[in-house]
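Revision sheet: structure tokens.
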Amino acid sequence: MLIDEYDAPLDSCLNEPDAFIKVKKSQVNFYSAIKGNSGVFRFLFVTGTLKFGNSGVLSDLNNLDDITLVPFYGDILGFSLSELKHYFGSYITKASKVLNLSESKLIEELVANYNGFCFEETASKKVFAPWSILSFFKRPNRGFINYWPENGGKPSVLMKYVKEHTLIDPSTYSEEKSIYRSGLSVSADSNKFDEKALLVQMDYLTIKKWNREEDTFLLGNPNREVKNFLEHQLTKGLLNAAKALKDEKTP
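Predicted:
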């Protein structure tokens, strides 16, 4: 059994307490039923973006093996650079001709725009976002545009974050930040959380480097595409807040 984006029903109503409780109850019942019939499943794989530890949705599935940050699985959720060159060689050649770039320059631009996601603790494996790279190869004549909004959408958690940070300079989110390993396990339904952890869970920040001695991670935007999208959202939030303030002062 494959359960993709287990957190989506909860994320959609995270800012609506009554609805969240109802959805959580149905989710708990669903996973309890799975646990009660575990003997008929040979393999269960659950994916998600945000962690909901406090809600106890997955508490009945106490035999799950959390592979988040495990190096062995670090490149299963995207294309590595070597895979891109091996499996998409003809597409790279075609795109380089369409854009009048050398293949080496094209790959350099693809890395800058769509690569850089890291899902493992050693920060040694970086992958391309499948949706973005496949969208590029589908219509290379459009150039290196941002496909992230089409796939990532605007999770309610991100929108709440933008609303609460409208007075912060959007350019500061290009600066690298540090977080302890324990901070990455933050629950999305917690009232006290490290904002950096939620941005990592939503892939707006990613692991750049691991400090083994302190067991901390250096975080930053994975690539140009995500950086532009996040800064755009924050800038729009800043402008909306300024407009609202102006409207309040207008007699």
